[in-house]
Amino acid sequence: MPRILIVDDESSIGTLYREEFEDEGYEVKTASSGEEALAALDSFKPDVVTLDIKMPGMDGIEVLRTIKEHHRKLPVILCTAYDEYKADFGSWACDAYVVKSSDLAELKQAVQRALKGSQA
Questions:
Q1: I need a surface site. Which of 2, 23, 29, 58 has the fewest CB within 10 A?
Q2: 3-class SS string, the chain
Q3: Closest Cα partner for 46 from 87, 113, 1, 10?
Q4: How far is residue 58 CA from its own chain's centroid?
Q5: How far apart, in Å, are the Cα atoms of 20 and each of 14, 23, 90, 113?
Q6: Is the pLDDT of residue 21 over 60?
Q7: What percent of the chain has pLDDT over 90?
Q8: For the chain, what percent of residues have pLDDT higher than 70?
Q9: Each residue of 45-75: pLDDT tens digit?
Q10: Which of 88, 72, 70, 68 is nearest to 80 (CA)?
């Protein structure tokens, strides 16, 4: 069963994503901050991470950088309400960039592609 770590400071988003991905057969852990996400990496050992950008404390770009420094092959999908971060050099290390939507099809496809890519 693939493991996904969902990082979002909005609890309603985390709950929605957790329920959707659990329904699809994923083992899911949620984190509401960058610090919490980094602490969960070694104990939960996710196969993929979805990561919000705008969060209090460590923002998603900082978390992405830290994840890639220590877990280079771990796929990270930035999932944010803000399209303009695509041009931010710091976001280029992500494996996919998804703009939040009530339709989770794009996010689910990005997760599937990331998992297939990490197995190659």
A1: 23
A2: CCEEEEECCCHHHHHHHHHHHHHCCCEEEEECCHHHHHHHHHHHCCCEEEECCCCCCCCHHHHHHHHHHHCCCCCEEEEECCHHHHHCHHHHHCCEEEECCCCCHHHHHHHHHHHHHHHC
A3: 1
A4: 14
A5: 10, 5, 28, 17
A6: yes
A7: 77
A8: 88
A9: 999 999 999 999 999 999 999 999 999 999 9
A10: 88
Distance CA 34, CA 57 (A): 7
> What's the token pair of residue 83?
């399209």
pLDDT band at 94 (very low <50, low <70, confident <90, very high): confident
State how far the Cα of 47 lies from the Cα of 14, in Å rounded to an integer.
17
Residue 12, token pair as written in the block: 């309603």
Asked whether residue 33 carries a pLDDT value surpassing 70, the answer given is yes
Compute CA 4 distance to the chain's CA centroid, rounded to the nearest angstrom. Answer: 8
Predicted pLDDT of residue 101: 87
What angle, 0 to 180 degrees and rounded to 10, lies between the N-to-C axes of helices 34-44 and 60-70? 30
